[in-house]
Design a protein that fits this description.
Length: about 130
């Protein structure tokens, strides 16, 4: 397995699930992840849920900014489906996405949500490349 030190980008999305929407949220996320597993460019997708606090945390690892653009283009209907059941509480970007990616986060559908971008200091991964 190849070890890389490249420019991967990790998203962490914390979502507040709307009251009464837990089942719809679960269905929408399950459908979105299934679609992404088959068609998306992500290297990794994991979603965790805290039912007691009605929060969910999504982690998505991308090879680069081009992979993020591809994901957004392919998955837009699924993203919208998930967003019918929640709001973004906080969004964290780890790595160094292209400026247009950061700009798109500032104004998704004309609205904004709190987010941070933390540039890489050091690291590597052992994910299979190719």
């Amino acid at each position: 397995m190849e070890i890389t030190t490249g420019g991967t980008i990790l998203f962490r999305n914390t979502m507040r699930i709307t009251d009464g929407h837990l089942d719809g949220f679960r269905r929408a996320v399950t459908q979105a992840v299934a679609f992404t597993r088959e068609h998306g460019p992500q290297l990794m997708v994991e979603v965790f849920i805290d039912e007691e606090r009605m929060l969910a945390h999504s982690f998505q690892l991308y090879r680069d900014s081009d992979a993020i653009r591809t994901h957004w283009r392919l998955s837009d209907p699924y993203i919208r489906g998930v967003m019918e059941h929640c709001t973004v509480q906080h969004f964290e970007v780890f790595g160094e996405p292209d400026p247009d990616i950061v700009a798109a986060l500032r104004t998704p559908d004309g609205g904004g949500f709190p987010f941070t971008v933390s540039p890489r200091l050091a690291g590597f991964n052992r994910l299979a490349c190719g």
